[in-house]
């Protein structure tokens, strides 16, 4: 029996496993994780917010001066406009308002990710620039989905699942009339880029370009804040440069330059 015949027999015997392998690869991909997390938040919004009071606009890509920005969910209501960023993550989550990077810890594995408050700040500012409305009525909301636990105190607008919905419902002051709500929805729908593969591809290309242009940063291994270059002013190391934590004096971690 030659090799090609043998391989054909093996493939013929296990062909039914190929779709299973493809399915497993898809559900483990970052793309599916993101899409599934956004779908879960969509369901939370549909089930726990009155659709007659809260108008949901999903997957909004807006043009910016140098490219595009993509917003997971925008909720427009008479109580304000809520810009929602979704994070589907596992493990322990550490972070603070002013840290550029937050930390995810799963057992002994530690990784860094961009502060979602900073990420959503750009979304909020882009939306504000597109709307002729009161800026103080636009709220940033971060909703975590998945088997994650906050290990540091988070701001009220950073919450897990239902907590994010409760934050939205906590805004009870009426700031827009029904006509103003309808006008805001029309402005967003008319200003967004057309949904589809082409728009998504252009946005991904823009994000990759931004990442490539950013200089390497050094996260603090103790608290996750960015390390900044400093120079010693006294002692035996006076005049020497070193990396110091940007959250000093709260964190005094330093890294010597070899």
E-strand count: 13
Distance between the termini: 61 Å
- Briefly note the structural class of the backbone: alpha+beta
Number of helices: 7
Helix content: 25-40%
Query: What Rg do the Cα atoms give?
Result: 23 Å
Strand order within the widest beta sheet: 1-2-3-7-9
Low-confidence stretches: 196-215
The general outline is: globular
Secondary-structure element pattern, one letter each: HHHEEEEEEHEEEHHHEEEE
- The pLDDT mean sits at 80
Please outline the major beta sheet. 5 strands, mixed
The share of residues in extended strands comes to 25-35%
Structure explained in plain terms:
The chain is of the alpha+beta class. The protein is built from seven helices and 13 strands. β4 (91-94) and β5 (101-106) form a beta hairpin. The chain is globular, with a radius of gyration of 23 Å. 20% of the residues are buried. The model is unreliable at 196-215 (pLDDT under 50).
């Amino acid at each position: 029996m030659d090799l090609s015949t043998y391989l054909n027999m093996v493939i013929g015997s296990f062909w039914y496993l190929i779709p299973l392998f493809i399915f497993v690869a898809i559900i483990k991909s970052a793309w599916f994780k993101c899409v599934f997390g956004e779908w879960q938040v969509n369901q939370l919004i549909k089930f726990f917010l009155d659709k007659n009071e809260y108008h949901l606009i999903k997957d909004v890509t807006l043009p910016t001066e140098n490219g595009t920005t993509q917003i997971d969910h925008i909720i427009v209501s008479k109580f304000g406009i809520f810009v929602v960023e979704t994070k589907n993550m596992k493990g322990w989550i550490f972070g603070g308002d002013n840290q550029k990077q937050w930390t995810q810890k799963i057992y002994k594995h530690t990784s860094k990710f961009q502060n979602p408050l900073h990420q959503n700040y750009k979304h909020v500012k882009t939306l504000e620039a597109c709307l002729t409305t009161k800026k103080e009525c636009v709220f940033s909301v971060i909703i975590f989905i998945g088997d994650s636990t906050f290990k540091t105190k988070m701001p009220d607008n950073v919450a897990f699942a239902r907590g994010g919905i409760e934050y939205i419902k906590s805004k009870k002051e009426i700031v827009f009339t029904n006509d103003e709500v309808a006008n805001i929805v029309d402005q967003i729908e008319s200003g967004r880029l057309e949904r589809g593969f082409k728009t998504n591809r252009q946005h991904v290309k823009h994000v990759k370009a931004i990442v490539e242009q950013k200089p390497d940063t050094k996260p603090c291994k103790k608290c996750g804040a960015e390390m900044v270059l400093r120079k010693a002013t006294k002692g035996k190391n006076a005049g020497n440069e070193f990396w110091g934590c940007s959250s000093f004096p709260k964190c005094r971690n330093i890294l010597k330059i070899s």
